[in-house]
Amino acid sequence: xxxxxxxxxxxxxxxxxxxxxxxxxxxxxxxxxxxxxxxxxxxxxxxxxxxxxxxxxxxxxxxxxxxxxxxxxxxxxxxxxxxxxxxxxxxxxxxxxxxxxxxxxxxxxxxxxxxxxxxxxxxxxxxxxxxxxxxxxxxxxxxxxxxxxxxxxxxxxxxxxxxxxxxxxxxxxxxxxxxxxxxxxxxxxxxxxxxxxxxxxxxxxxxxxxxxxxxxxxxxxxxxxxxxxxxxxxxxxxxxxxxxxxxxxxxxxxxxxxxxxxxxxxxxxxxxxxxxxxxxxxxxxxxxxxxxxxxxxxxxxxxxxxxxxxxxxxxxxxxxxxxxxxxxxxxxxxxxxxxxxxxxxxxxxxxxxxxxxxxxxxxxxxxxxxxxxxxxx
Length: 377
Prior knowledge:
Blueprint: E1 11-15, H1 22-36, E2 41-45, H2 54-59, E3 63-66, H3 75-87, E4 92-96, H4 98-110, E5 117-120, H5 131-145, E6 150-153, H6 156-164, E7 173-175, H7 188-199, E8 207-211, H8 220-233, E9 238-242, H9 248-257, E10 264-268, H10 272-275, E11 281-284, H11 293-300, E12 305-308, H12 313-316, E13 324-326, H13 331-343, H14 345-358, H15 364-376
Helix pairs in contact: 1-15, 3-4, 8-9, 8-13
């Protein structure tokens, strides 16, 4: 006689916004996997604008709620959040990122709700508010961490960072890596023509690219400077920077200054799932990261990776065994790594194949089970 399936367990995820980003993509993957396992899932968010992930969540049968937060200190928001947490007493509550962690724990205290699980997604974690303020926030965070049922970091390096700074007691920490969906990529035969159309190239011109928000932490000027170095030796290589954000004008100006023209395409936001497998090299140039989804997705897609040593990247690339690593901000080293990868494509693809095998166990279903195990502990 087979054992009875465990009963459904409701879950409530909280996050500051549903703009498309790393944490939002993780919530999307996990929420959909949990729904497939018959667990009722609710996702609550605080910012009204830019909720681009909401339609896909709702299409998967996930209840999505806006708990409006209009000001930094918003008493009406606090009361609404406390009421939501009071009404969700039977659910496992997980908050993602500093803002959601902060307010969820405070409102949970006000509502006398059970302790929640706080998820830490990046190395810096605390807001950059200046020395004394940051230190005060750190002390307050260490107090709130004791209120958390558990604190889940997405990498060993993130966990080490928050414990070294005294933000989280080691006994409260658990590490669960990001999930990656290796089944969503279109085959190279379809991806390559679409990618080639974006960069204006012709076969067999190599295409090197990244897909990211155009923001300061991604350090995309280093990518553009590396592209200039590559162009001096292999002018046929084309670069793609797929994304949108406040750094666009700076990148366009640098592209013009370096005379790169059409060699560096900035087409705006692009569908990474439809283009990833068409890349010859996937590139990450961030100055700091948590566990970047772009690198995980490139690995899952079997695309060679060149990355700076940001955040958990050395951890997931096994210190260079599964991809090439260079120092943060080193455009010369970055260019050399790109050229070396392009010069030995068979070796690069063999390494990429090992990387794909290494992340095969990080499916959304597998990571959802790891979260459920922590929730049940």
